[in-house]
């Protein structure tokens, strides 16, 4: 493990400036709004700001204030990868090791808003040692050159990272692909992953054979207004917002040419999701362009991040569907946000595992740790704190640390 400083080469910044100055924009229908995708006026405004006002070096310096490291991880059957991660140890005795996993189009940066609070704690408030990697093919981790790097390989990477830091037992938090990677990690390494908290819930309606009690409860309880609104939100996403997933899950290479060669194309592709998937979060120009720049300047390039969709979609054994099923040996915490891209009734979320913590928030969308860091922190403190459903996990982790210390 070595300290890591992000330093994008000057030639990449020069190339970006040149490409922005020669960008060609499409036309747009009158009064198109967001119906057809990212509006032309928004993209032109952001490109102008990118050219004239945005300062990557300033943002880079801010990001480098995070305690970042890189280490080498050997994934079985694949080449050794350089894995970048943020790692902040708490000074509180008995702090809980927490693996935070991002998704697409997010990054390790999402942990930055919750990091200061999570590492603090006391008698009644649990503290955490926080580990937030850039997944392979994302951010400042390297990418594989071999086919077949599926969710189990992402899980193996994260698990081996935690082991390399001395954490044989830990807990996890994730949304988007972070939900799926941490779920598979718990499935494959249940003696290490003792509990998981997720903020993207994709469970299915309980059935009589799989969950008879939940099925009867679901059958007898009418859907409330929140749940009906959730069905509408989910239907909107399926019908109007999921085209990206089909493209990235079938022909990521073809799309990759556009995202790699055109920073404006990359901006529009990601900005649309930031707008549509958040709950009216007031994105600033600097925030938007920093999120996009992390992909533009990523070690493996922006096309590499798309491949997780293809690999998961073509994995019939450990693909996305497996992460929605019951995983019984890992205690589960679920956070329901009204503007998530998939909003399900509580009974559906309970089909995914032994739910020991459940929260329902009045606002918030897909990027929970960024939009509602207060909610994520409150959930984790409640779930693992005194009287929380995963309080017993904390004692198990501490006993394991005691054994390791004696050895």
Automatic annotation (TrEMBL):
Family matches, as InterPro entries: AB_hydrolase_fold, Epox_hydrolase-like, Epoxide_hydro_N, Epoxide_hydrolase
Epoxide hydrolase N-terminal domain mapped to chain residues: 1-111
A Pfam short name: EHN
Keyword Hydrolase: yes
Domain of life of the source: Eukaryota
Keyword Transport among UniProt keywords: no
Recorded GO MF terms: epoxide hydrolase activity
Keywords: Aromatic hydrocarbons catabolism, Hydrolase
SUPFAM superfamilies membership: alpha/beta-Hydrolases
Catalytic center residues: 176 (nucleophile), 309 (proton donor), 366 (proton acceptor)
GO biological process, one term: epoxide metabolic process
Family the UniProt entry places it in: Belongs to the peptidase S33 family.
Protein name: Epoxide hydrolase N-terminal domain-containing protein
Organism: Heterodermia speciosa
């Amino acid at each position: 493990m070595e300290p890591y400083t992000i330093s994008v080469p000057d030639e990449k910044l020069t190339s970006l400036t040149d490409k922005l100055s020669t960008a060609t924009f499409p036309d747009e229908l009158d009064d198109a709004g967001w119906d057809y995708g990212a509006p032309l006026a928004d993209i032109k405004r952001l490109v102008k700001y990118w050219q004239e006002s945005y300062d990557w070096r300033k943002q880079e310096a801010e990001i480098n204030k995070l305690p970042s490291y890189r280490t080498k991880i050997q994934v079985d059957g694949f080449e050794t990868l350089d894995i970048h991660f943020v790692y902040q140890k708490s000074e509180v005795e008995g702090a809980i090791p927490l693996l935070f996993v991002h998704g697409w189009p997010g990054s390790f940066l999402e942990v930055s808003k919750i990091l200061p609070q999570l590492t603090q704690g006391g008698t009644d408030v649990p503290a955490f040692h926080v580990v937030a990697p850039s997944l392979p093919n994302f951010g400042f981790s390297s990418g594989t050159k071999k086919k077949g790097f599926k969710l189990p390989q992402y899980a193996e990477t994260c698990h081996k990272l935690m082991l390399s830091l001395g954490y044989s037992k830990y807990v996890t938090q994730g949304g988007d692909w972070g939900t799926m990677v941490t779920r598979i990690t718990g499935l494959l390494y249940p003696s290490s992953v003792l509990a998981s908290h997720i903020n993207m819930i994709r469970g299915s309606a309980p059935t009589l054979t799989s969950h008879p009690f939940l099925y009867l409860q679901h059958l007898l309880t009418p859907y409330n207004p929140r749940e009906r609104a959730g069905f509408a939100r989910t239907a909107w996403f399926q019908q109007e917002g999921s085209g990206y997933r089909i493209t990235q899950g079938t022909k990521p290479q073809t799309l990759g040419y556009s995202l790699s060669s055109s920073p404006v194309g990359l901006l529009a592709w990601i900005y649309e999701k930031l707008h549509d998937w958040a709950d009216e979060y007031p994105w600033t120009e600097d925030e938007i362009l920093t999120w996009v720049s992390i992909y533009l300047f990523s070690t493996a390039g922006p096309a590499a991040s798309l491949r997780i969709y293809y690999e998961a979609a073509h994995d019939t054994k450990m693909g996305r569907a497996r992460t929605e099923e019951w995983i019984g040996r890992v205690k589960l915490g679920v956070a329901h946000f009204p503007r998530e891209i998939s909003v399900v009734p509580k009974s559906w979320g309970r089909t995914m595992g032994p739910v020991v913590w459940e929260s329902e928030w009045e606002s918030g969308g897909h990027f929970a740790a960024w939009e509602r860091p207060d909610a994520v922190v409150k959930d984790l403190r409640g779930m693992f704190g005194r009287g929380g459903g995963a309080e017993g996990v904390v004692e198990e982790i501490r006993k394991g640390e005691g054994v390791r210390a004696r050895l």
